[in-house]
């Protein structure tokens, strides 16, 4: 119903999600644009980190522009392996293949809903810290689900691990001696 040259939704809600298009009409007729899809990310409500992980914020300090919905493995890999602070929301099933994703510091990796699934290995190596992983299904028929190899300040909650041919969650390289909590794993 908008008739201006631009259209702005100041405070989006889930009701605003959907397809939008533009119809331009004049005396010569009308033209309709291709649809543009608006996805509204839900606010994931998980328990606040406590215990050894009480100070973990993940990508929580990321700017709104760093909150990204990903639907492909390549998008996920690019964001997770970047040195930038980010909140990465996984939509659908992402198959990472046989190459692990080397997650960098200051990330929140979360599922959009209960069907959000990652197939492959997430590795948090020595020097990586301040990572939150929540609300995901993790599987890897070819290896470990998540590997913590010397990482610190990691909070994993509301994650379902299944069908990993090696270890669901491997902790090594001194990671167990650092601030690290896994709670609510399903």
Task: Describe this structure in a few short sentences.
With 186 residues, this protein is mostly beta strands. Helices cover 4% and strands 41% of the residues. The chain is built from one helix and 16 strands.
Polypeptide structure, described:
The chain has 186 residues and is mainly beta. The chain is built from 1 helix and 16 strands. The protein has one helix spanning 73-80, and strands spanning 18-20, 23-26, 29-32, 36-38, 67-70, 86-90, 93-95, 101-102, 107-111, 117-119, 122-125, 129-140, 146-149, 152-164, 169-172, 180-183. Strands 5, 6, 7, 9, 10, 12, 14 and 16 form an 8-stranded parallel β-sheet that branches. A 4-stranded parallel β-sheet has the order 8-11-13-15, with no helix packed on it. It has a two-stranded antiparallel sheet with strand order 1-4. Helix 1 (73-80) links the parallel strand 5 and strand 6.
């Amino acid at each position: 119903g908008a008739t201006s040259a631009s259209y702005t939704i100041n405070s989006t809600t889930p009701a605003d999600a959907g397809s939008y298009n533009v119809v331009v009409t004049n005396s010569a007729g009308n033209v309709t644009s291709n649809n543009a899809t608006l996805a509204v990310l839900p606010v994931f409500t998980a328990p606040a980190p406590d215990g050894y992980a009480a100070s973990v914020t993940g990508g929580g300090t990321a700017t709104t522009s760093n909150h990204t919905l990903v639907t492909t493995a390549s998008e996920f890999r690019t964001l997770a392996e970047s040195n930038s602070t980010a909140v990465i929301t996984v939509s659908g099933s992402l198959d990472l293949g046989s190459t692990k994703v080397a997650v960098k510091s200051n990330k929140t990796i979360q599922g959009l809903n209960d069907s959000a699934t990652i197939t492959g290995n997430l590795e948090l190596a020595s020097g990586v810290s301040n990572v939150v992983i929540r609300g995901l299904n993790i599987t890897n028929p070819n290896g470990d689900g998540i590997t913590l190899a010397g990482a610190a300040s990691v909070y994993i909650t509301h994650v379902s691990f299944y069908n990993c041919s090696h270890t669901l969650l491997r902790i090594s390289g001194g990671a167990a001696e650092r601030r690290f909590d896994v709670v609510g794993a399903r």
